[in-house]
Amino acid sequence: MYGYEIFHENIMNTLIDNVRNSKNAATYIFCGPKGLGKHSAARLLAQALVCDDPRSAPCGRCSACREAGSGNHPDIITVVPEKDKKEIGIDTIRAMIKECLINPFYDRHKVFIIDDGDAQSIAAQNAFLKIIEEPPEYAVFIIVCTELQTLLETVRSRSVIVNFPPVSDNTVRKYIEEKHPDEPRVDFLVRYCAGIPKTADSIISDGKFEQNREESLNIVPKLLSKNKRHAYDFAKYIDDNKADADAICDMTITYLRDALMVHMGASDKIINSDKSDKINLLAQSYTARHITRALDEMLIMKKMLNKYVKVSAAALHAALKTI
């Protein structure tokens, strides 16, 4: 769409129509799981906002569109955490505000894309709040985030929240087949991606994916065990593989979900169909209630990892809570 990898064309068409009719908001929050092209969507909206021809923005022909498309437009600024820091601190936001108070290089808008917006510290969000309460008329802010609730309610209430939900399996399949035409695992990837197309990119480029997938299945009984020593074994495995902790967490969630599908008599809907023997054994060995508790704790663990909780602590918390 307009040269950007967009999975939610209806959403973007509405936002672009608003720009063309001079009805754009001053602050947007683009919210949804990673892998849905939210940053590309933010860049597309930014290009429409700076286009020299507002009635047909983004025209793709003007110098502003060409600069935006190449990532070199002076009035489109991306805000990210400082090098070697996990959160966007107050100094970064203060620097953004200082830049915001300088008139645009061109005439129309000055757009700030705050990537990983839910990584803003509370102090940074409070500083940001001051500028969005009374922004310069040319300023537009686009906060790209995964967890909406990590943003202050006062920030949310002053923003237009745009939700990017998972897309259809057909959209995911089309994406994989077009981008990775030689990939043999298309059916599995469509199920595993669960409506998030770019998950396939990280799997295909991950040389350890299949190894981690097999090992994580073998460690699931440690999570489900009522033996406290096994809980520590589970946490140790995750900590020993902390670089892949998030991926292993996702894999474990799919296995628990598949075991529940077996309990429900829906074996045809399992994601990891090539591991059906072991998944059936899990379903036979543990009650649906116990598996559900483990699944809930793994979902909590994933949130803890996203908030940069120590890997070993998050894993141990999940395992001990499952006992």
Please give the alpha-carbon distance between the first and last residues.
Answer: 49 Å
Using only CA atoms, what is the Rg? Answer: 22 Å
For the sheet with most strands, the description reads:
5 strands, parallel
Task: Please identify the structural class as seen in this structure.
Answer: alpha/beta
Strand order in the largest sheet: 2-3-4-1-5
Overall shape: it is globular
User: What fraction, in percent, of the residue positions are helical?
Assistant: 40-55%
Assembly level: single chain
Proportion of strand residues: 5-15%
Residue stretches low in confidence (pLDDT < 50, at least 5 long) are none
The overall average pLDDT, rounded, is 96
Give the number of DSSP strands. 5
Give me the number of helical elements. 15
What is the chain-wise order of helices and strands? HEHHEHEHEHEHHHHHHHHH
